[in-house]
Design a protein that fits this description.
Elements: H1 2-6, H2 13-18, E1 25-31, H3 40-55, E2 59-65, H4 71-82, E3 88-92, H5 99-106, E4 111-114, E5 126-131, H6 133-146, E6 152-155, H7 162-177, E7 187-188, H8 194-207, E8 214-217, H9 220-232, E9 242-247, E10 260-264, H10 266-282, E11 290-293, E12 295-298
GO molecular function: DNA-binding transcription factor activity; transcription cis-regulatory region binding
Keywords: DNA-binding, Transcription, Transcription regulation
Organism: Cohnella rhizosphaerae
């Protein structure tokens, strides 16, 4: 150790890999066609992984994948695993059952995924973190029903993602539990970005003479876009329409009006996911492979009682 300290020896990672040792590096892969820098939620997820991995003595190698149908992009990700540049990986934004991710899991690499649901698949190296969308929707619909709303619409998320489907299914169940009718014309397709909320809400306003008294948005970014469309049309939130988001975005409390939302502890969720991936890499006994983040309702200014 004295020689190592005296000469400031730094281990060669390539040599360590050849010797069968790990790199102490996690791959962080974001699947996103748009601007990652402008998406605050994605940046929160990224920062949570980097901070927690660093606290555990791990490096993070970050990739942005624009299109999973692009063979070169996918090959670059797979090479990071097969050439042992990373010991394991975390994927954000993947569709449910993404083929190349399934191949990595089948080959035994420790892989953490956010927002996935594959019943019956329980491989030890498949680490999954989700949010409790169904419970969150019960909170949102229940709160609106408590305020007297019976005409409730929704702007859905990306239906290729588990959370998009799960939120909508949760919405249907919650509406049924409260004896409320789901009107298809108030169910609008969307995704998880602000512009999706803006376009979906604007289209609703253009096409429908009778509007819901409240809208539930797939996430807070979608809610921001939806409220912008309402305000441009001369409508006021919550006086003319109540709006609920999902996530508790960093800007939600400072938005005008302050956004009522279903909060999810993304920092804790990503820290747990990172911990579980590292546990699999290090072969720690008893490492868990599933984490579900519980939701809670944050009441602010974007909803009002009616009737």
């Amino acid at each position: 150790m004295e020689v190592i300290d005296a000469y400031h020896y730094v281990p060669n990672l390539s040599a360590q890999v050849l010797a069968g040792k790990g790199t102490r590096t996690i791959g962080l892969f974001v699947i996103e066609a748009g601007r990652v820098s402008g998406d605050m939620l994605t940046n929160l997820l990224l920062a949570s992984v980097v901070e927690h991995a660093s606290s555990r003595g791990y490096y993070v190698l970050t990739y942005i994948i624009r299109d999973t149908s692009d063979a070169d992009s996918v090959r670059g990700v797979k090479d990071a695993f097969y050439q042992r540049r990373v010991d394991g990986g975390v994927f954000i934004g993947a569709a449910n059952e993404e083929p190349f991710i399934e191949a990595l899991i089948a080959d035994g690499f420790p892989v953490g995924v956010v927002d996935q649901h594959l019943p019956g698949r329980s491989e030890g190296n498949r680490i999954v973190a989700n949010f409790d969308n169904a419970y969150g929707m019960r909170l949102a619909v229940g709160y609106l029903a408590e305020l007297g709303h019976r005409e409730i619409g929704i702007v859905n998320g990306d239906m290729n993602r588990y959370s998009g489907v799960d939120k909508y299914n949760g919405f249907l169940v919650a509406m049924r539990e409260h004896g409320l009718e789901v009107r298809e014309r108030w169910v609008r397709p969307g995704s998880f970005h602000e512009e999706d909320g803006y376009r979906a809400t604007r289209k609703l306003l253009e096409e429908e003479r009778q509007l819901p008294t409240a809208m539930i948005m797939a996430n807070d970014s979608v809610a921001f876009g939806g409220i912008r469309a309402l305000q441009e049309a001369g409508m006021s939130v919550p006086e003319d329409m109540s709006v609920i988001g999902f996530d508790d975005h960093a800007l939600s409390a400072r938005f005008k009006p302050a956004l009522t939302t279903v909060a999810i502890d993304f920092g804790e969720m990503m820290s747990r996911l990172t911990d579980y991936v590292i546990g699999r890499i290090e072969g720690t006994e008893g490492t868990e492979s599933r984490y579900m983040s519980r939701s809670k309702l944050i009441k602010r200014e974007s909803c009002r009682p009616i009737g």
